[in-house]
Sequence to fold (273 residues):
Amino acid sequence: MSSHSGKQNVTVNTLQRMKAKGQKFAALAAYDALFAELISNAGVEVILVGDSLGMVLQGHDSTLPVTLDHMVYHMNCIRRGNRGAMIMADLPFMTYASEGQSLESAALLMRAGAHMVKLEGGAWLAESTRLLSERGIPVCAHMGLTPQSINRIGGFRVQGRDPEQAHTIIEEALLLQEAGAAVLLLECVPVNLGKEITEKLEIPVIGIGAGPHTDGQIMVMHDMLGITPPAIKPPKFIKNFLPESDNGIPGAFKAYADAVHEGRFPGPEHCFN
Ligand code: KIV
Fold:
């Protein structure tokens, strides 16, 4: 496990080494400086400035209204509070629709302090992924359930249940790895698919609702504190860590990081079969 002390000491190489050694890493989506400090001090390796802020902070029913300006603002907040975690930032809806646009959008987030950008999608992102990584911008590919495509998918539901769709997700994940993606984030897929992709890929795989076999786990910070917005039905894959904390909110972050590092989270009750 890493110990953070006021500088970025978790890098993509750290995650790669942890994968090679079979060590699990923890990630949380968060949006402000104070929580960034508490989360990084708790030993969580990755902070995601997620476009989930559209639903959690802004009260929208999807992530689509989030803009690049919103992301840059929250990116700056997280950067100021962070004590050594790797910071990943979402490119929001329609800010990477073309290759040129993805370069310009990613550059803004990197200038604000991101260490990696996350893009939702599959094969169609191969060229942007290649361009970004060749120009020094590490990319996390987000596959499985991709909330920015909610209107096409038709709802927040498990992806890759039928064999054909599972095969496509595997093939496209391999393609994005080949294009230069440094990390894959896999959302809401059955346990077996999460396991197969994690084993097939050389790059670290972070899961949310993707079972216990992925190299890392991520959750939205508010979900793991038991404060999911009332309009949202709490998904099966979340767990409230506050009840097992011996030190309020900082203790809950530590309890989450420990549970992930020790392979105790997620349990079978948080997974899709
Ligand atoms: O935006 C976000 O917080 C995310 C996580 C749910 C993985 O993408």
